[in-house]
Design goal:
alpha+beta; globular; two-stranded antiparallel sheet; 430 residues; 14% strand; 10 strands; 17 helices
Length: 430
C-alpha cells in the first residue's frame, strides 16, 4: 500500500504544465534527453524530490544497447557504494535499539576484521563506518576482485602498514567496511541480507530492493552493464562486490531509491528516526581527496567530509548529504538537503561519468542559483577561469594517501613508511 501510494503520487505531479516548483522538471527532463545522445550513455533512471515529495521519476534509454528494451521507473540497477548508507543506517538503528554500540570495539562484533597491531580492538564500530581505520584506502580490493573470500581478506589486513592512528584520518574501504555485515548478523541472528529486508526494506515498502546478483538477474526488468564507451559487458558480470554486501551489494529500481532518499530526509521517521539520521549524516572526518576531486564544481561544492556511510558537503552554504558509486558497468549517485528536503538520485548502466552533473543542475534550481552547464552538453563551466579566480581550491589541505592499495611495485613507498607515526613530507615530498 505504501509503495503504491508513492508511485501514484509521483505520477500525479509529473504533468509539466501543473508543476510550478522551484525545480524546473521540464528543463531537467529536456537536459537528460540530450544527455542520452552523448557517447557512452545507454540507460538511466532519475528521481527528483522537492519538499519531501516525488516530482519526477523517469527512465531514459535502454536496458541493453540496441535492444529496444526501454528503461522505466521499474528497471532495476545496482547501487554500488550507495549501499554503504544502508549498512550505516541499519547499524546505527541497532545502536539506537541497544543491540550494539557505535562506540564499542569493532572486535566485539566482527570476528574476521584484523588490523595492524591488533587495531581492531581499538577501532570502534563508528570508525569502521566512517573509514577511519588507519590503513591505505581500498585495501586489497584487488584480491576481492580476484575472487578471494572477503572474510579471509579482512583477516590479512593486519599485514598492511599503518597510515595513521585509528580515528584520525579518512581512507575509503570496501573489504574492511563490510565487517558491518558481520556485526549485523551477530546481533540480529539473521544474515545481513535478511536483516536489511526485515528492518529497512520491508517497513519502507522497497519491494524491488535486493542484495544479490541472482536477485538482480531475476528481476522482471533489469539493466545490463556497459563500459564507458557504451559496449555491453554483462557476460562478464561477477559477484565480487555482492560478497561485501554492506559495501556494494544493493540493487533496486529508481522508485525505491527515491523512497530511500525520502526516508533519509525524515519523511518516514517510524523506520529511520531523526536520531539515526543525525548520527549518520553528521560529518565526522575531513576527506582531502574528495575535497580536491569536487573542485571542478567549485564554488558550489566544498568542504567534503564523511559521516557514517554518507558524504557530507557544503553546497553554496547549505549542508547536503550524498554518495556516488561505481561497479562493473553501473554508476549511481544521490544528493539531498536534509533540511529543505530537496534532492536527486540517478542510476545508470554504463561507465560514463557525465550524468554526475544532473545533481548539480537540480540543486542549483532548488537553491535559486544561476544555471550552469554541469552536464557539459556544451562547453560547460570555464574551469580555468574559476580556478584562476579561486586559487585556494587547487591547494591540498593535507597530503593524500597512496593512490592504490600497496600491491603494485610502482607504489614506491619510502623506507620509513608504515611506522606508527611519520612525517608526511618524508612520504610524499610535500
Amino acid at each position: 500500500m505504501l509503495r503504491a501510494f508513492f508511485i501514484a503520487a509521483s505520477f500525479v505531479v509529473l504533468a509539466p504544465l501543473s508543476y510550478a516548483g522551484s525545480i524546473d522538471v521540464a528543463t531537467i527532463d529536456g537536459r537528460i534527453e540530450r544527455l542520452m545522445d552523448e557517447r557512452g550513455m545507454v540507460g538511466l533512471a532519475v528521481v527528483i524530490i522537492e519538499d519531501g515529495q516525488f516530482v519526477h521519476v523517469k527512465g531514459y534509454g535502454e536496458t541493453l544497447a540496441e535492444s529496444g528494451d526501454k528503461v522505466t521507473e521499474e528497471t532495476v540497477f545496482r547501487w554500488a557504494s550507495l549501499s554503504k548508507s544502508v549498512a550505516a543506517t541499519l547499524v546505527t538503528k541497532l545502536d539506537e535499539d541497544g543491540a550494539l554500540s557505535l562506540s564499542a570495539s569493532a572486535a566485539n562484533y566482527s570476528q574476521s576484521l584484523h588490523l595492524p597491531s591488533h587495531g581492531e580492538r581499538q577501532a570502534s564500530v563508528q570508525n569502521v563506518l566512517s573509514h577511519q581505520l588507519g590503513i591505505v584506502r581500498n585495501a586489497f580490493d584487488n584480491r576481492l576482485e580476484g575472487g578471494v573470500n572477503a572474510a579471509r581478506i579482512r583477516a590479512d589486513l593486519h599485514k598492511l602498514p599503518i597510515e595513521c592512528e585509528i580515528g584520525t584520518c579518512h581512507a575509503y574501504q570496501n573489504v574492511a567496511y563490510d565487517s558491518a555485515s558481520e556485526m549485523v548478523a551477530k546481533v540480529t541472528g539473521e544474515s545481513y541480507q535478511l536483516a536489511v529486508k526485515h528492518h529497512l526494506f520491508g517497513p519502507l515498502g522497497m519491494g524491488s530492493a535486493s542484495l544479490t546478483l541472482q536477485e538482480l538477474q531475476e528481476s522482471p526488468r533489469w539493466a545490463r552493464p556497459h563500459n564507458g564507451r557504451g559496449f555491453n559487458v554483462y557476460r562478464k558480470m561477477r559477484d565480487n562486490y555482492y560478497r561485501v554486501p554492506a559495501a556494494g551489494g544493493m540493487n533496486s529500481n529508481i522508485t525505491d531509491l527515491g523512497i530511500w532518499m525520502r526516508a533519509q530526509m525524515g519523511e518516514m521517521g517510524a523506520v529511520i528516526s531523526d536520531n539515526v539520521r543525525e548520527q549518520t549524516q553528521r560529518g565526522r572526518v575531513g576527506t582531502t581527496r574528495e575535497t580536491n576531486r569536487v573542485r571542478r564544481y567549485f564554488p558550489r561544492l566544498s568542504d567534503a567530509q564523511y559521516g557514517l556511510g554518507w558524504r557530507v558537503y557544503d553546497y553554496a552554504g547549505h549542508k547536503v548529504v550524498g554518495h556516488r558509486g561505481a561497479v562493473n558497468g553501473y554508476r549511481a549517485m544521490i544528493l539531498f538537503d536534509p533540511l529543505t528536503r530537496d534532492g536527486v538520485a540517478a542510476l545508470w548502466n554504463s561507465g560514463s561519468n557525465q550524468p554526475v552533473g544532473i545533481q548539480m543542475e537540480v540543486m542549483d534550481m532548488a537553491y535559486g542559483l544561476k544555471a550552469q552547464d554541469w552536464l557539459y552538453l556544451g562547453a560547460g563551466p570555464n574551469l580555468a577561469k574559476i580556478r584562476a579566480q579561486h586559487p585556494e581550491v587547487v591547494q591540498l589541505t593535507s597530503a593524500p594517501f597512496p593512490r592504490l592499495s600497496p600491491y603494485l611495485d610502482r607504489d614506491n613507498l619510502p623506507a620509513g613508511h608504515g611506522v606508527t607515526h611519520y612525517e608526511v613530507k618524508a612520504c610524499f615530498g610535500l
